[in-house]
Amino acid sequence: MKVFVTGASGFIGSAVVRELIESGHQVLGLARSDAAAAKIASAGAEVHRGSLDDLDSLRSGAASSDGVIHLAFVHDFSDYEGSARTDLRAVQTIGAALEGSGKPFVITSGTLMLAFFLPQGHLGTEKDVADAGSVASRPRVASENAVLALAERGVRSSVVRLSPSVHDKRRGGFAEVLVSIAREKGVSGYVGDGSNRWPAVHQLDAARLFRLALEKAPAGSVLHGVAEEGVPIRTIAEVIGRHLDVPVVSISPEDAGKHFSWLGLFSSTDNVTSSALTRELLGWQPVHPTLIQDLEEGHYFHHER
Question: What residues pair up with 162 in beta bridges, in sequence order?
Fold first, then answer.
């Protein structure tokens, strides 16, 4: 297939591009800058200039391809609702271009959105889908619902919910943010007793999941990019503290926002999440190192990010 990929130059997107090309697909990568264009071209993909705000570029990219993987997201945590609205417009625009075609359309969401409508500590599964009327304003919930609705309009649509820590030896998602906060504050913190958990997945396992979703996920599928159902935050904090040689301390729930900044909203969230249905549906089996294994390699701590 010729696959239009947004976010093709990013941490996850670059791995998805490699996975697609190595599996025999052609890639048309969205690039909003010269640097992104150069990175996409060097990976062996065709460059498509545009951005999430340029809806014409999204329409033309989708219309000229056999399928779409949407990975780009504006990570502006000072206006996260605005970023979510931009994402929804992009999803709606691409979806309209694909309507009635039977082509695959895979979008990206996150397992943490489950925390908006599931009880704390409840094992989240692919069957858990938000009621549009009750939490439509929550980040990415509206985009999820919009793409799932496309299954009834001739699009083989699917959602990949990624773990908050998509990692390799160099990068680590939310775990990497905890490293930066610990370096800045001089302590490695966790909230309360630190028993709350975040799921995790290796970058290369996530990339393979996106490729499998593109190739064979049924219309209306919800998929979980989860290799580890839940890594205790205290365990992550202890590894960080040891490598940075800083104290490991408990932060009170009242002080979480001040200590963790924008991450404070999720710092005490217990986001334990299953991917059993995803594995059964697509035959996806994560094989790459765990989050703690990658943290222990030490590359996260060699220089400030």
Answer: 110, 225
| CA–CA separation, 64 and 186 (whole Å) | 51
- According to the model, what pLDDT value does residue 121 have? 84
Specify the pairing of strand 2-6 against strand 67-70.
parallel
Separation CA 164–CA 273 (nearest Å): 11
Instruction: Write out the E strands in 121-265.
Output: 156-162, 165-167, 188-191, 197-202, 221-225, 228-232, 248-251
Q: What is the pLDDT of residues 169-206, one digit of tens each?
A: 988 899 999 999 999 999 999 999 999 999 999 999 99
Other beta carbons within 10 Å of 20: 28
DSSP 237-261: HHHHHHHHT--EEEE-GGGHHHHHG
In the chain, what percentage of residues exceed pLDDT 90?
Answer: 82
Amino acid of residue 127? K
Kindly report the average pLDDT of the chain as a whole number.
93
